[in-house]
Specification:
By secondary structure, the protein is mainly α. Helix content is 65%, strand content 3%. The protein contains 26 helices and five strands. The chain has helices at 2-30, 38-56, 64-80, 82-94, 98-114, 122-137, 144-147, 156-163, 167-170, 177-195, 204-215, 227-242, 246-249, 251-262, 273-284, 288-313, 334-355, 358-365, 369-397, 404-423, 427-449, 457-478, 480-489, 505-509, 577-585, 587-603; strands spanning 514-519, 522-527, 540-541, 562-564, 573-575. A three-stranded mixed sheet has the order 1-2-3, with no helix packed on it. A two-stranded antiparallel ribbon has the order 4-5. A hairpin with a 2-residue loop joins strand 1 (514-519) and strand 2 (522-527). The protein is globular, with a radius of gyration of 24 Å. 45% of the residues are buried.
Length: 605
């Protein structure tokens, strides 16, 4: 808990400071007076630091030295603007009452407890941990995706996790970014409830966040490239449903956040359509300075992400091999990109089909209570997404007044859901949008039934305490079996959770054994773990892969097909020319073999 809390404090200080600095510069340049709450300023800081890290990582590792530089800059900034800092402290202290303070403490403790015991995560142990270490110890490595093609995905989550890992303090990396964002959003929902004088509608977002905690706790306590896009898209829609005019009154955040999220998860690309709507409105208002600033800021975020993509994989966006603009010697073979993209789609389709298979739904509903609840919630959210168009048509038919911003948000996110459904229908990629649309539907139904807001200040204050306790119970319930197992088998290690997160029991028991393979006299460690997990060993990879071993979804390319580009790891990797030709010429054959293996493994065909 101590390690996670320390990381939260550091992350909050840096991201809020950079957010406030960005808003300050934006207001000066654009001659506006936009104001943002703590969470919104924090998210602007997230976008700013994402850009800075993408830029600096082209030449420098994203480690404690970059972090110290950021902290030094933030301290200098607040020293210069100490008057603003004092105003902020007075403002937050003035609006923090004792009951809200107790609720906030319960929320913080709940999430800290949840993150004290890591969940099992295949992607984390397969390539996230190692990728974060690459970012900590090296600048962008040419052709790194040849060593493990999943490194080519280049999510900025793994980059920002590196600079905030605090490995130099605690020995192990601390992954606190997504759990902190979840905590801040949950606190925002409670603050909004208090500000609304306990309006019934403002209770609903809290229930949705509890649903995320219940059904998706593993994305909060370990590395997950899905967490930040999920949370931010849901927050974006919820904020629009409650205060639809914010899109046009606070265009800076509304514009840059979708752009930044694309660099965390490519599935957010359709979300960026909202930027066209914002630009169109600002053009009508003749806000040319504002438009120029937003375009330059967001353009830099994307530009340096593109640059990292090209350095790591050779492609502008991996695994989209069709966008092939650069003739670099470290480019990942086209066959590898093609097979990886096919696997992403096929596995996403299998996951979606499995989630809604009748026998599995029945199995979940008759299983543990928490499994049954999570399945009911999942069915509810997707049912809302299906029903929402009919609610919109009814709303239009009855000529009810609904802010145009809500229609725009609905249309864009619905297109996004359809886009993901066609190209990669994994629920992880669209659950934030689905939950957001569910909340929009509830808001619309509420407006059908009630003509005015309903406030219950006395009952609401009691309910806020009850909800905070529910959050604590849900967090405890999610970790109950993990704690019991650790107590039974590793009782002596249980108190370590007070200091830093404990690995999942499977990792406590795993033998992290490796063979050594030499590339140009440089040792590369080949994992012996049966599923190919490399954990945080660097450099390491899976010993399987084409053309010697058929692709089954784990690793596409064999270690013997690549070579070092120089004498050190920083100089990168490339595929040997003869294997580039072999792999690319046999793509159709490899694809046919892969399909056969996939269908047999997942569908029993």
């Amino acid at each position: 808990m101590l390690a996670t809390l320390t990381s939260w404090i550091v992350i909050s200080y840096v991201l809020f400071s950079f957010g406030d600095f960005s808003v300050f510069i934006y207001n000066r340049v654009c001659k506006t007076e936009e104001k943002y709450n703590f969470l919104d300023t924090f998210l602007i800081g997230l976008c700013a630091v994402t850009f800075l890290l993408s830029f600096s990582s082209l030449w420098f590792p994203s480690n404690q030295y970059i972090l110290f530089t950021y902290i030094l800059f933030c301290t200098a900034y607040w020293f210069i603007r100490r008057g603003k800092l004092f105003q902020l402290v007075i403002h937050y202290k003035k609006h923090l009452n004792s009951s809200l303070g107790i609720v906030m403490v319960l929320i913080i403790f709940s999430v800290l407890f949840l993150t004290s015991f890591l969940s099992n995560s295949f992607d984390s142990e397969f390539y996230h941990y190692q990728n974060i270490r690459w970012n900590e110890e090296y600048s962008a490595v040419p052709g790194l995706a040849n060593l493990e093609d999943r490194f080519g995905f280049n999510s900025n989550y793994l980059l920002i996790s590196a600079v905030f890992s605090l490995r130099f303090m605690f020995g192990d990396a601390i992954f606190g970014v997504q759990s902190l964002i979840f905590t801040l959003m949950l606190i925002w929902a409670f603050i909004d409830l208090y500000k609304s004088n306990f309006n019934v509608l403002n209770i609903i977002p809290i229930l949705f966040f509890i649903a995320i905690l219940s059904a998706s706790d593993s994305i909060l306590d370990n590395t997950s490239t899905d967490a930040i896009p999920l949370l931010c898209t849901f927050y974006y829609i919820t904020k629009t449903a409650l205060k639809s005019d914010w899109l046009l009154k606070q265009p800076f955040l509304a514009f840059i956040l979708p752009i930044a999220l694309v660099t965390y998860k490519l599935s957010c690309i359709i979300f960026c359509l909202i930027c066209i709507y914002i630009l169109f409105y600002q053009l009508k208002q003749r806000q040319y300075r504002l438009i120029a600033f937003m375009l330059v800021f967001s353009g830099l975020v994307i530009l340096f992400w593109f640059a990292r993509n090209v350095i790591i994989s050779g492609y502008l966006i991996y695994p989209l091999s069709e966008i092939d603009l650069f003739a670099v010697d470290w480019k990942v073979p086209e066959a590898v990109a093609t097979l990886q993209r096919a696997y992403i789609h096929d596995y996403a389709k299998f996951t979606f089909t499995r989630s809604f298979a009748y026998e599995l739904i029945m199995d979940d509903l008759h299983g543990e209570k928490i499994r049954a609840l999570n399945k009911i919630l999942q069915i509810f959210f997707y049912s809302c997404a299906v029903l929402f168009p009919f609610a919109v048509l009814y709303n239009i038919f009855r000529k009810r007044k609904t802010p145009i911003n809500q229609y725009v948000i609905y249309g864009i996110f619905y297109i996004g859901i359809l886009f993901n459904f066609i190209f990669a229908p994994d629920p992880r990629f669209m659950i934030g949008s689905v939950m957001g649309i569910s909340f929009l539907l509830i808001c619309m139904i509420y407006s059908f039934i009630f003509k005015e807001e309903h406030h219950y200040p006395k009952a609401g204050k009691v309910l806020s305490f009850i909800l905070a306790i529910v959050i604590l119970v849900v967090a405890g319930k999610n970790k109950q079996m993990t704690i019991i197992y650790i107590y039974d088998h590793y009782k002596h290690r249980l108190t370590e959770a007070l200091y830093k997160p404990l690995p999942h029991p499977w990792n406590l028991e795993s033998d992290k054994e490796f063979d050594i393979f030499y590339l140009n006299e440089t040792p590369v460690y080949l994992t012996k773990e049966k599923n190919g997990r490399t954990y945080d060993m660097l450099p390491s990879t899976n010993p399987t892969g084409l053309p010697f071993i058929l692709f089954d979804g784990n690793k596409v390319q064999h270690i013997e097909t690549i070579e070092m580009r120089g004498h050190g790891l920083q100089e990168g990797f490339r595929t040997k020319k003869e294997y580039v030709d072999t792999l690319n010429m046999n793509t159709d054959k490899y694809m046919k073999e892969y399909r056969s293996i996939f269908d047999k493994r997942y569908y029993g065909k």
